[in-house]
Amino acid sequence: MPASHTLILGPLSLIALVLFYLAAGDIAENLSPQGCRMSWMSPSYVLQSKFNTSWTPLARRYSLWLYREVGWDPNQIQGTPVLFIPGNAGSSHQVRSIASSATRQFYTSPYVLAPEFASRTLKPLDFFAVEFNEDLSAFHGPTLDSQITYTSHAISYILSLYPLNTQIIVMGHSMGGIVATSLLPSSNISTIITMSTPHTLPPARFDSRIEKIYTKAQRTLASDPTPIISLCGGATDMMIPSESCILPTDTPAADDFPFRRTVFTSALEGAWTGVGHREMVWCHQVRWRVARAALELGGAGTSPTGKADILDTWLRDGHVLPPIAADSDGLTLDDPAAYKIMPEANHLVLLRHRGSRTFLLPLPRAERLVETPLKAVVFVGMGSLLGLGPRTDIPLRVSVFLCTASSGAEEVTPQCSPLKPSLLKLIPNPIPGTVFPAPNEGTDESEGAVAFEADVPVEDDDAGLKRWLGVRADDGDGLGWVVGGLSKREEVVAAPSSLSLLFRKVDVLFSDKAALRSHFVFPNIISNALIVYRYTPIRPAEDPWCSDPLLAPMISHTSHPAETHYFPANAPTDRILLHSHAPAPYVASNPPAPRGPLNFVIYSSGTLGCDMLGFSIGIDWSATLGRWASRFPATLVSWAIGVVAVTLFTAWGAEDRNIPMPSVKDSLSYYGQHTFRKLLLASFVVAFIALPVDYYIGTRGGPLFAPLAPLLLLVASGLVYVSWWVLMCLMWPIGALGSLFGRSRVRESPSVRRSTIVSMGLIFALIFLFVPWQVAYLGCWLIHLITCASSAQQIYQLGSTPTPSVTAIPLIRIAGVDGDVQEEKPEEVPNHEAQRGAVQQHRLDNHNHNMHLLLLMTWLLPLVAPVLAVWVRTLLTAGLTTPFDGDHDFLNVAPFLVLVDFASWNTNVLFERQRFERALSARWLLAVLAGTAFFVGPRRAYSVFDAAKIAVGLIVMIRVGRRYWGGAGWSVDSNDR
Ligand SMILES: *[C@@H]1O[C@H](CO)[C@@H](O)[C@H](O)[C@H]1NC(C)=O
Ligand SMILES: *[C@@H]1O[C@H](CO)[C@@H](O)[C@H](O)[C@H]1NC(C)=O
């Protein structure tokens, strides 16, 4: 039975949706777990009532507040201004965690300066916050514009309270970050810090005006000299895909590129945790650093490099080198007691070191270095290396040198010069066997070890030279430790490819079980936001040979120049999920994200093989599904509209061939049996074409992701079936109610028309003046739903409904339309019988047309619903006075209004074919709509509504035309007579 396809597709898509939902939940908990301490404060907010309507009319709608820590801050302003901008549905109160931290870092107790600030000229911070009444700014361009205008005036007002030429630090959370960057260029803004802000891809893409704001922001991001830093929560953030949080960055060619830094909290030194969207403002490990950076920025003056250094110091993720400490001068070791040559040792391990000494590790000869290039690796625990260390007052200081001495002499006097690091960062060093990061607790300030890496230079004139790696440890107090040595630059595991991982896992065994640093590169495994790999340790049968490693094996996975994630390599869970955020669908990155292979480094203090033989790499399907779930909802909606458009296109094709208009049920089952298969194949093939990242499924033709297209098509098609069933369920009670009141919807046309024109005019005026067109669209949909419900009821009541597949009743074309009247009235059929059949056929045809239209209009609803929600919200919070500019273009909804109204009283043929359509049928407009929905819609959903509006508009003009306004009206009866 043909219906079987529809019976399978619908439930299948529902099951897929449930799976996606579960997988997304799995991601939130497992991909990048959150370890954040709660923050505490005693908040109070002072309303800035002087910032009133004489500054901006928007002061009626929004407000400005000054945060004060109760008992700590005086009630007036005192230092450097900071403005916090909340995001979509956010509140000004979200400022409290960061503001409170700034106060409590500046003072140790009320009005007592902290020792760090006592000797400096820094000022405390005054945190202002704008209150947008939890407006839904992500969905509505004009709302976002109002926020930008208000905030810009707020800054002028705030600065008017301070001495001339004061600059303000601006912080934005989520969409607040877009407001912040939209304020540029401005000489009044010192620095912008954004948190969980989707900079490059609007999270809701239903409004073209949001796109305009984004386009402008892109230009600003590329050129404005104001330093901007973007903090991203990574995979834990389920509200925005974190790839859109990455700022366009420096290219090697452009030295004067303004300061843009993206810091993922998974790499943020001392935090090392994924942070959820809302948690970003209160996660203690993040908020104190943001507050501290702002405090320091207050004293930075106006020089961009000064600000950049502060941001790189306090919001460090280890991807750039810290400003190297000044004490790294050269060294001459003429006192034999001051140094110790380690004999043939591979590693230097210093435990409980006291005092100051330099340790020399011999370097291999040049020709061996050329063969296998080496890296010098040093780890320091409970101490600092070149000035970088965890925030503790432990005195141990370590520096690294390259030392040489002529090999002939008996008495050597090594000359040492500082070795420039290629990497210097803090890495987490949690207690082995514990969960990392600790849930609800996270990392402590004193945790972490310093990792130092440098390429060992090859010098060819070393015939008479001995060379060492020199590690100098100063002021050891017996607590810290140092581990140093040499390791291979990288290990290439060429064999496995992403494709082969689809079917099996790949085992990799450690070649050097005592390596300090093992860099694994899988050149054939791609790194992409849409795929998650699972690393599983392979454990030996016997017990581990080490009990208490200084640095337990730690995976450092740098998937993007701005993103690093750390995982303990022998985590108790055995499920380590290696993921990345770029490249990603629909996000064009600048510079292009490396399509680079999967690669990661495992650091350890020489105990790598202690309880692991190696690891295996495979694809983690649950997490991979979860990644898809959060990246393709807009694609699903858009493709479902495409499927509906294709269904309509085929149905109209039947009509063009003079076959009665099929019912939606028949159309859908035809789609399920024929069109779907062809589309499935086509979608798969098209997925291989390297389209720009904005189009189709956004994967630029990556072959590995081609199967995604048919999968999405399957789910989208299934959703159309489900939506149809839901509509039927909705219509049944409405139709039953309608017939209960015995209201006939078939009215005499001529008398209706005049009042129609009047009421149409009224509605248009209403939209023009007050109601957003989105509301009118919802009204259209409702009217059409009722029309369909009651006509379904009538057809059901007529009982003797001719089914379209039965061709007993010949189709009667209307004379005068295209001339080729095809009346093949069988002689033997009595005239009135044929008439009755024809009338019924018309009714049925019209009904089927209406139902198809209803399905299309239903799927267009999700595109207008967000703005509707914003409007209702704004009405509730700001009242009727609020201007809702830009949504009064009645042309957006006019085609639907006319069509829906016409369908509600028309008793004739709904759509009349025109003569010229024999060359090109109007139904091709639906094909254009489908094309837009499949290719452009996923990234720019609003364009699908535009295409639908134009298609329906043209169809109304061509096929309804004058008849609506009372032109030549034809009726079946008059024609037959
Ligand atoms: C706004 O506040 C200022 C200062 O308090 C006051 O002079 C002005 O009259 C106020 N304007 C309005 C429209 O209330
Ligand atoms: C900067 O702030 C001052 C108030 O101190 C204001 O007059 C000026 O218009 C502001 N400039 C910009 C570009 O916003």
Mean pLDDT: 84
Quantity of strands, as a count = 31
- Which consecutive residue ranges, at least 5 long each, have pLDDT under 50? 744-752, 800-829, 967-977
DSSP helix fraction: 25-40%
- What is the terminal-to-terminal distance? 42 Å
Ions, cofactors, ligands: which are bound? 2-acetamido-2-deoxy-beta-D-glucopyranose
Give the percentage of residues in beta strands: 15-25%
Form type: globular
What Rg, in angstroms, do the CA atoms define?
35 Å
| Total number of domains | 4
Number of helices: 21
Which structural class is indicated by helix and strand composition?
Answer: alpha+beta
Quaternary state reads single chain
InterPro entries: AB_hydrolase_fold (IPR029058), PGAP1-ab_dom-like (IPR012908), PGAP1/BST1 (IPR039529), PGAP1_TMD (IPR056824)
Main location: endoplasmic reticulum
Keywords: Endoplasmic reticulum, Hydrolase, Membrane, Protein transport, Signal, Transmembrane, Transmembrane helix, Transport
Protein name: GPI inositol-deacylase
Can I get a quick summary?
Helices cover 37% and strands 18% of the residues. Helix 12 (633-656) crosses helix 14, helix 15 (749-769) runs antiparallel to helix 18 (894-905) and helix 19 (924-936) runs antiparallel to helix 20 (941-960).
